[in-house]
Amino acid sequence: MEALSHRDGEARFGYLDDDSVPKSSVTPTYALAVLKVHNERWDGVPFFLRCGKALNERKAEVRVQYKEVPGDIYPQGELKRTELVMRVQPNEAVYVKLMTKKPGMGFAVEETELDLSYSARYKDIRLPDAYERLFLEVIMGSQINFVRTDELDYSWRIFTPLLKTIEAKKIKPIEYIFGSRGPKEADELMKKYGFVFTGTYKWVSPHPKL
């Protein structure tokens, strides 16, 4: 990541500016993978796996974006895509980002949401931390929330050759600014496969303590 960045009035330094990191390091701090499942159910549906350090938000979520349908009564581009988001961390929540008509006699629309915030809905229940459930299942001998062997094998078949190539050829990572969404090339790649990012909506929990 690049060093040129200011956030909250404070200068932030990039990965290579750390004295403990060799200047020749090519260790990536961001990754985006586009995967496809070749079966009848998921034919034509791209899966984006995206992660990185020092991005604009610290979160873990699953986001499903729905394409437009034909016969829209609004002009092209006026409506944003509907998205189902499952927020894993922080503040577990499930919400649907969708377009609704603003109250009144007009036909103007705006982005809004239907949401379920776990800590608000289940106030009297302690929600376990990230690995607590997994540790409990290890003790109980349960594998219900662990990946299967075939899934693990496939992941290594995909990523092992890639990681070996990066290491052997010393491929330099694409730089991005501290506190950004990541490299602009990542957004361009996702757009190529049909994902639409507008940047006009940000989910805010309706419960201040969250």
In short:
The chain is an alpha+beta fold and about 210 residues long. The protein is built from 4 helices and 8 strands. It is about 20% helix and about 25% strand.
What does this structure look like?
By secondary structure, this protein is of the alpha+beta class. The protein has a single domain, classed as Dihydrodipicolinate Reductase, domain 2, CATH 3.30.360.10. The strands form 3 sheets. The chain has a 4-stranded antiparallel β-sheet. Strands 1-2 form a two-stranded antiparallel sheet. A hairpin with a 7-residue loop joins strand 7 and strand 8. The chain is globular. The model has no long low-confidence stretch (mean pLDDT 85).
Which segments are poorly predicted (pLDDT under 50) over 5 or more consecutive residues?
none
**How would you classify the quaternary structure?**
single chain
| Major sheet attributes | 4 strands, antiparallel
CATH class: Alpha Beta
Number of separate structural domains: 1
Distance between the termini: 30 Å
Mean pLDDT: 85
Total number of helical segments?
Answer: 4
CATH topology, by name, is Dihydrodipicolinate Reductase, domain 2
Fraction of residues in H or I helices? 10-25%
- Write down the secondary-structure element order: EEEEEEEEHHHH
Strand content: 15-25%
- Strand elements, count: 8
The outline comes out as globular
CATH homology-level superfamily: Dihydrodipicolinate Reductase, domain 2
The helix/strand class is alpha+beta
What integer value in Å does the Rg equal? 21 Å
Strand order, biggest sheet?
A: 5-6-7-8
Give the CATH architecture: 2-Layer Sandwich
